[in-house]
Design brief:
With 143 residues, the protein is of the alpha+beta class. The protein is built from five helices and eight strands.
């Protein structure tokens, strides 16, 4: 489970330190890909493999599924954190998410997300009231 938010910086080579508390779950390797809302999704390789298997179980005749798989897969990259806990964000993904130097890494429960700092601040401000009220969300198992 991934929770919390952190503010690492990208270095000149596009590397980012993963938060120390996330590293044990990501040490075997990660898949980084486009997320929704112009952020990046970071999955442990084993979790990404499970997601891929569930996609395989769906009919490939569905245009929406094919489009989703194309967008998810075409931008994805495999990374193994180095000894210092850094991963390299591919240039194409940095452009997609508008990442320059200042980033926010958040735990989104089932995955890690990487956001441009300003984009995350805007997203959080827009959705905070809705979250606080629980408006329009039916989450199984939520208290």
């Amino acid at each position: 489970m991934f929770v919390g938010d952190f503010a690492p910086r990208l270095d000149d080579k596009g590397r980012l330190f993963l938060p120390a508390k996330f590293r044990p779950l990501l040490s075997e390797g990660v898949v980084i890909t486009r997320g929704q809302e112009r952020c990046l999704y970071v999955y442990p390789q084993s979790d990404f493999a499970k997601m891929v298997q569930s996609l395989r179980d769906q009919p490939a005749s569905t245009p929406e599924l094919r489009a989703y798989e194309r967008m998810l897969g075409s931008s994805g990259g495999h990374e193994v954190p180095d000894r210092q806990g850094r991963i390299t964000i591919p240039h194409k993904l940095r452009e997609y998410a508008g990442l320059d130097r200042d980033c926010v890494v958040i735990g989104a429960v089932t995955r890690v997300e990487i956001w441009d700092t300003a984009a995350w601040g805007a997203y959080e401000a827009e959705h905070e009231a809705q979250y606080a009220q629980g408006a329009g969300v039916n989450v199984p198992g939520a208290l």
